[in-house]
Amino acid sequence: MKIEAFNFEFFSPYFLLLFLLFIPILIRDLRKKKQAGITVPVSAGMKESPGIAVVLFLLKITKYLLLSALIIAMARPRTFTISQDRDETKGIDIMLSVDVSLSMLARDLDPDRLTALQKIAIRFVEQRTSDRLGLVAYSGEAFTKVPVTSDHQVVIDELSSLDPLELQPGTAIGEGLSVAVNHLKDSRAKSKIIILMTDGVNTIQNAMDPQIAAQLAVGTGIKVYCIGIGTNGYALMPTAIDPFGDLVFTETQVTIDEETLSEIAQRTGGQYFRATSTESLQQVYDEINQLEKSDNKVSKTYNYQEYFRYFLWFALGILLLDALLRWVMFKFLS
Length: 334
Prior knowledge:
This protein is elongated. By secondary structure, it is of the alpha/beta class. 30% of the residues are buried. The chain has 10 helices and 12 strands. Helix 4 (113-127) packs parallel to helix 9, helix 6 (173-184) runs parallel beside helix 7 (210-219) and helix 7 (210-219) runs parallel beside helix 8 (258-268).
């Protein structure tokens, strides 16, 4: 269950237009003040008394306070919270495992591989409204950025902040897959999916073997979709860092271990896709989005807290105060 933040609203806000009636009342009172008649001795004495002056002032404003309280009460101010319920046994849990090695800054996608992937993956997350998602980033090592969660904004924020320089260099595909498997293995979701993305080959020999990681996925009922990112031929890739700390890009042949990725996808019941451009990467995500349909419905419960009663009690108090003040004036004048 997810509870959203408190919200405020008026159930019948059009009643607030009644405040416009104050305008002619104020104009009338101002005109009366300008058209003051002959001052009689009694009223003169009243003005000299500070107590009576306060009573007269209060009598002038009580009508405005009373009408204001009644108008607000009719508009029905209230706060509410929204509780979202999701049946975890019917939805789909999806783990995004993203290669953030330095080569992901290659410029064969617009503007580069990582930026293009971030934009498209964020759009994918936004479309999976009924599912839980998580995020693993890997290069020479793997790190869980977000465990599976229904809070999609957290996943989007972490996707936006992926940095190729935050992890050890290299590409450990098996590590990226096994860490994602470890987070999904105990899930009770109807379907468990990993979308594994890389633009290279496994370069860390002493890390988890991709084939063993694939077998772990099979044993826990996890389906893996693999995406190879990179054009056919050559691409501008970062190959060095100059003395000023800037990346140096050179034309380098694109090499992706498509055989391993295809085998992982086949063994787990998923599919392998090759994305050679930003457009084709978008098409890959669109196809995965169509292949993995979720029948889980998120129900929302609205919990209201009404405040009109407080304004009615306030109006009653003002009415009693007005009656008391008029009694005081009557006693004084008599």
